[in-house]
Write a structure and sequence with these properties.
By secondary structure, the chain is α+β, with helices and mostly antiparallel strands. It has 3 helices and 6 strands. β1 and β2 form a beta hairpin. α2 packs antiparallel against α3. It is globular. It starts with a helix and ends in a 6-residue tail after the last strand.
Length: about 120
């Protein structure tokens, strides 16, 4: 299992969210049956691809205490807390996140992602 590659994909996703490159990145990354649970909604693959185009860009983000856990030979989960700030906003968004990746044709693909917002606690 390549922990650095999986964390790199997570970081790249946060960096590209809201940009014109997000849809192409996630089109290659998401499995056909991917599901995302975001605050107040769940998205299948089709809705997720549109979502990343409409969301605001992050001015900055940090993944705190990331941990990659093997679940099977070709499946891994990554958990972390994200602290991200939208462009033009002072108050950051904080959430505990879990993503599950499955290896397909020697590539890691995102099959599940969940974000649970947390209060403004010390990071």
């Amino acid at each position: 299992m390549d922990e650095a590659a999986i964390l790199g994909l997570e970081r790249q996703g946060w960096a590209l969210a809201g940009s014109r490159h997000a849809k192409g990145f996630y089109d290659r990354l998401l499995t056909a049956d991917a599901v995302l649970f975001l605050p107040g909604e769940w998205l299948d693959r089709t809705r997720a691809l549109e979502y990343w185009l409409t969301m605001p860009r992050w001015a900055e983000y940090r993944l705190l205490r990331p941990k990659v856990m093997p679940l099977a030979d070709v499946v891994a989960a990554v958990s972390y807390r994200v602290v991200a700030r939208e462009q033009g906003r002072a108050e950051p968004y904080r959430a505990d996140c879990v993503s599950v990746y499955a290896q397909e044709n020697a590539r890691w693909r995102l099959t599940f992602h969940e974000q649970t917002p947390v209060g403004s606690s010390p990071d």
